[in-house]
Amino acid sequence: MQRxxxxxxxxxxxxxxxxxxxxxxxxxxxxxxxxxxxxxxxRLDLAASAKPYRALIAFLAFHGLALFLAxxxxxxxxxxxxxGLRVVFFGFASTYLISQEDALTFYAAWxxxxxxxxxxxxxxxxxxLSPPFMLNKYFSRHRKEAVIRVAALSAAILxxxxxxxxxLDN
Length: 170
What we know:
The protein is globular. Helix 3 (53-70) runs antiparallel to helix 6. It has helices spanning 5-27, 30-40, 53-70, 79-99, 104-129, 143-169. By secondary structure, the protein is an all-alpha fold.
């Protein structure tokens, strides 16, 4: 049971954050939800031309902010907050995409699988940078190597996701 604690923590954060994002979308005004979603990932505007490089900028911004917060002792606890924000955006943007007409194919084939993997890897990235106090013993050894591996795997999945988006968009 003790070995499954990090997995349960990851799933709990994912479920609560995704649900929070969907509820936030439900209570948000239409203009605000569209502005926030398209600011963080403009590829979700299926009517406009695609800008896949903006996904790279958002990816680097989330990872850079997590690295910055982890490098300062007073801000270390905010790293998991950034992971939570990423999960809330995942739920918010998923609900936005589902609410669009004729976007279910994009959602099922491109957005949900890729963003689920990237969000889970970002949570693992943040957990290795600054593990929660109850998980310290699970992440004590080889954390720096794990951070590099998770970031490299995330970058590879992001590249594949951008390629899939370009393929589906044409």
